[in-house]
Amino acid sequence: MMPCESALCLYFWMLFFSPVMTNTITEDIEVLVFLPKNNSYLFSHTRVAPAILYAQQRLKAEGGQYSGFHFNIQFENSDCVNNAFLTLVDRCGQKPDLILGPVCEYEAASTVRLASHWNIPVISAGALAAGFSDKSTEYSHLTRIAPSYVKMAETFTAIFEHFTWKRALLLYEDDAQERNCYFTLEGIYHLMTDFNFNSLAVSPDNRPDMDDILQRIYENEVVIMCMGADRIRDIMLAAHRQQLTNGNHLFFNVELFNSSSYGNGSWRRGDKYDNEARQAYTSLNTVTLLRTTKPEFENFTLEMKKSVEKARFPDCKDCESINMFVEGFHDAILLYAIALHEAMKNGFTKKNGSEITLRMWNRTFEGIAGQVSMDVNGDRNGDFSLMSMTNAEEGTYEVVANYFGANGTFQLLPGFNIDHFTLKVRQPPITEIQDKSCGLGVSALTGVIVGAVLGTAMLIAFYFFRKNYRITIERRRHSEECDIGKHRQLREDSIRSNFSAA
Ligand SMILES: *[C@@H]1O[C@H](CO)[C@@H](O)[C@H](O)[C@H]1NC(C)=O
Ligand SMILES: *[C@@H]1O[C@H](CO)[C@@H](O)[C@H](O)[C@H]1NC(C)=O
Ligand SMILES: *[C@@H]1O[C@H](CO)[C@@H](O)[C@H](O)[C@H]1NC(C)=O
Ligand SMILES: *[C@@H]1O[C@H](CO)[C@@H](O)[C@H](O)[C@H]1NC(C)=O
Ligand SMILES: *[C@@H]1O[C@H](CO)[C@@H](O)[C@H](O)[C@H]1NC(C)=O
Ligand SMILES: *[C@@H]1O[C@H](CO)[C@@H](O)[C@H](O)[C@H]1NC(C)=O
Ligand SMILES: *[C@@H]1O[C@H](CO)[C@@H](O)[C@H](O)[C@H]1NC(C)=O
Question: Ranges for the Receptor ligand binding region domain (predicted)?
């Protein structure tokens, strides 16, 4: 008698309270994911897709308040040019509720514009260029779940202010295609307008003019580089032979995502220059993403490893290591679930993309590897590490400082040695450096061109594309004859032909 009665009681009690108690909202969500099938990308489908599926399964399995969300995930190829955009246009009949990716800047630009116009939220662990920071119009529905290049630049602002450095050379490799290094250092140029920066681009295909590079290094206090590991070694060796590594100049390289290309032994090639390179690298410091882990991360790492092994493809280098893209796209699903749940509780539907987007911004949540903090502009605050050689005999590197973006503070670690960062002889100020480089300083940083910014004549000629492919026009100085300008023109042409062919 008693058990039956209490069961009945429990039944009515549950009936009465269940909406309040469980708080589950059920909804089907159509997700369209753009990732390259080409495994040469760190964010290829093979590496990232398992993380997205892991997040989907975990939300279901944990039975929490988000377990009523059913994510229908469809993967599409991305080619870092136009594929994502065209795919989206072609399916215009069925608009997804959420888009994840693309990562590459140019492809993301067109895709996010269309998605914003269609009121569809986009979350990407890419689209890191400075131009995407302007969310007032074309990129209104973009949420960036990985720290952008401007966030990385905050690290340099903090270091430069601390050591009162004034003048720096931004030295980068520009492939005129995806232009990752260009966009990386552009973030620094964009943020640090109070400093005297000039820039020099080198082509990945030709041998760089080493004399010119050394002259430019000589004129500056600090050199910030973004390029392939072998080329960095060549430059460091050349600088070392010219006594430019004797403490009057400081070198940094920015390597955010590929953890196997920096740190211990990054100078080592097994050739006769190893000894020289090790000495040269004593003045080379690396800025990279600060990686955190927590117990859940272990299981995640193991599961990712299993998936990659199962997919088994031949051309994958360090596939088993979890990078920021893998982590970011996992956390994207969590963030969307939190925002959608909150929006629906407040009476909105999944179709109100702008409402859900705003609810993803200005919040902190627990991601797979630790806390994820989104700023009020929908961009993730970044934590970065500074690595330096701490043992010159062994040539070993250590993290000597961390920068926390959420509170803007620097944390110095035991390995930090102030002498290492103190310039022995300050360069006399040069009043006006003639920047003939046509690099970031003059033309390229016309902003933040992910697509177009041309001379006046070009503007008219390409009016249509200016409208469709620009990120912002933020012209600092005039110069139309630069190499980068030409690259960009070519770029516009190819965008145009692709577009009109569609
Ligand atoms: C994959 O991408 C790399 C680098 O962008 C390129 O060289 C290669 O040809 C691509 N492979 C395929 C199969 O498209
Ligand atoms: C990562 O860096 C290593 C060492 O420099 C390089 O061999 C490898 O190709 C890089 N991987 C990617 C995906 O860039
Ligand atoms: C480099 O090696 C040293 C000593 O072996 C170790 O303490 C340090 O953590 C290593 N650094 C990296 C980045 O692997
Ligand atoms: C990870 O966790 C899941 C669920 O908790 C479990 O089924 C799975 O076996 C774990 N994987 C590993 C490699 O430990
Ligand atoms: C979406 O939400 C906003 C408030 O953020 C509201 O003004 C707008 O009318 C809603 N749109 C739709 C289609 O419900
Ligand atoms: C961001 O969130 C904080 C508290 O979480 C709130 O005080 C602040 O007003 C929010 N900012 C904006 C612009 O919404
Ligand atoms: C800044 O944030 C980091 C990481 O969240 C924390 O360890 C540090 O103590 C914070 N610093 C200050 C001054 O709040």
Answer: 48-390
Q: Is 376 in the pocket of ligand 6 (CB under 6 A)?
A: yes
Nearest CA to ligand 3 atom 3: 396
Closest ligand, as measured to the CA of 351: 5
In what helix (H) or strand (E) does residue 483 lie, and over which residues does it extend? helix 483-501
Q: Does domain 22-148+293-374 fall into CATH 3.40.50.2300?
A: yes
For each of the chain's 502 residues, which pLDDT tens digit applies?
A: 444 455 555 455 544 444 444 568 999 999 999 999 998 899 999 999 999 999 999 999 988 899 999 999 999 999 999 999 999 999 867 899 999 999 999 999 999 999 999 999 999 999 999 999 999 999 999 999 999 999 999 999 999 999 999 999 999 999 988 999 999 999 999 999 999 999 999 999 999 999 999 999 999 999 999 999 999 999 999 999 999 999 999 999 999 987 666 788 899 999 999 999 999 999 999 999 998 889 989 999 999 988 888 887 665 666 667 899 999 999 999 999 999 999 999 999 999 999 999 999 999 999 999 999 999 999 999 999 999 999 999 999 999 999 999 999 999 999 999 999 999 877 666 554 444 444 453 333 333 333 333 333 333 333 333 333 333 333 333 333 343 433 343 343 333 222 222 2
Q: How far is the CA of 261 from the centre of ligand 5 (A)?
A: 47
C-beta separation of 452 from 462 below 8 A: yes
Dist. CA 337 → ligand 3 center (Å): 39
Token digits for 496? Answer: 């145009």
Q: Which atom of ligand 3 is nearest to the CA of 398?
A: 11
Domain boundaries, the chain: 22-148+293-374, 150-291+383-421, 440-501
Cα of 155 vs centre of ligand 7, distance in Å, is: 14
Tell me, yes or no, if the two domains 22-148+293-374 and 150-291+383-421 fold the same way: yes
Backbone angles phi, psi at 305, to 5 degrees: -60, -45
Query: Would you say the CB of residue 404 lies under 6 angstroms from ligand 7?
Result: yes
User: Which of 154, 385, 402, 404 has the most ligand 7 atoms within 8 A of CB, as the residue to mutate?
Assistant: 404
In the numeric block, which tokens belong to residue 294? 């927590």
Q: What is the DSSP letter of 210?
A: H
Assess whether the C-beta atom of 40 lies below 6 angstroms from ligand 1.
Answer: yes
Q: Which atom of ligand 3 is nearest to the CA of 387?
A: 13
- Using a CB cutoff of 8 Å and minimum separation of 24, what contacts does 316-319 make? 316/39, 316/46, 316/47, 317/260, 318/258, 318/259, 318/260, 319/39, 319/46, 319/47
In ligand 1, which atom is closest to the CA atom of 80?
Answer: 5
Question: Which ligand 2 atom is the nearest neighbour of the CA of 230?
Answer: 5
Which fold would CATH assign to domain 150-291+383-421? Rossmann fold (3.40.50)
